[in-house]
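@channel sequence for tomorrow's demo:
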Amino acid sequence: MLEKLDLTKKLSKAEYREKMAELEPELGKLQRTCKELGIPVMIAFEGYGAAGKGVQISELIKALDPRGFEVYAVKNETEEERMYPFLWRFWTKMPEKGRIAVYDSSWYRKVLIDRFDKRTKKSELSSAYDSICSFEQQLTDDGMVIIKIFLAIDQEEQKKRFDKLLSSKETEWRVSEGDLERNREFEKYEKINEEMLKRTDTDYAPWHIVEAMDRKFATAKIYSIVIQKLSRQIELVRRRNEEKRIMKEAAMANEIKSAEEQPKPDKILTESILAKADLSLSYTKEEYKKKLKKLQKRISVLHGELYRRRIPVVLGFEGWDAGGKGGAIKRLTEKMDPRGYVVHPTASPNDIEKAHHYLWRFWTAMPKAGHIAIFDRTWYGRVMVERIEGFCTEQEWHRAYKEMNDMEQDLVNAGAIVMKFWMQIDKDEQARRFQARQENPEKQWKITDEDWRNREKWDQYEDAVNEMLIRTSTPSAPWIVVEGNSKYYARIKVLETVVEAIEERLKKEE
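structure tokens (generated this afternoon):
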């Protein structure tokens, strides 16, 4: 891609003024439209040192309302950032719907400068590329516009620009020893960039290579690229909104069959993971107390060892209402150091969370190395409650299985232990627990009308859960079905499973 470039392209001052007189107001108008339609935009600038990323970003934002964008300068990871998966810092710098984020260098640093400097190992490259492509596809599938711009200059021009910067005390700080080394090894670094461009040039997030020897030409071309991409997305969103309006009107005009009239799947022909759970399993109170004391003492020791070895842990809890999630989490954390774990109760998303990709609020809550994050309800709500209650489209929950598997794999690749627990009880046991909560003044807050309504959709939820377990239980991030009719048994199984997983990991670390 790079060797075929014609780097001699230029614009005269007159040509530049004429083009920019049209391009600048057009870009400002498109920004306002993106805000109105709730279209988020990420613009990533990559390229050779001294190719003009900073200059071109400054030129680009001249046409934008400063209240609607943010610019991020991406340098070496901070000590804090190194304690998370490498994409974490970009999930936390993601624009909400209607806003623009501009990146001076981006998530590609992992496979470019860090690779050249040998901070990224060869064994990490393949998974890093997979993570980057998955990251971009997840966001674009959700409506994000990702514009990737690569600024290209040749070795001689780069050297001239470095020399000019180094000749002044005011600018010499902008040239690092790493910059000079990459100039000396220009062909080697060019090959690294060439590989990156080929491996990540996709239909959903293509690369736009800009010949940057002439600043005026580069500026005009970048404006044209951004305008074209935003215009296409605006047209697409408007067309989809119109299709939704027509479909909604058609649905209101026609008699729609109720869920009860729809043909139901034959249970005999449907694979059920939940049906295999032996809900008769139980412990006596004495057995429970004895096991609990031993396991809690062990988890306390292991928690300290996780911190010492900087191993993060992610535990997700799902299950039927009144399935025992809270009780299991309480016994799991009771003897842990409270400075080393956080329990995240997941409720319906608020307005800020709705303005981002559905995984954003979970990425921002992931633990740093050595810490534990426990989620009481998780990202799997997308393929359960959101699927069944119609809070997302069929296309959205279908693709969510891969998105969640990919996220969990990113966590595992960063060294995390990832496990998900499904707290399984039967319908009769749930009814007993609901009734007990209603009769106990101290627990009445735990039961709502919505809990009773959800029981009416038990079969739908059961089908969704079975599909979820089959599609998203992986060797590196397994689902564990916890037989929960006996609270004592369920709590012990959760503790035993977590202890065994941590002990197995620590053995591998020795």
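heads up for whoever presents: The chain is about 50% helix and 10% strand.
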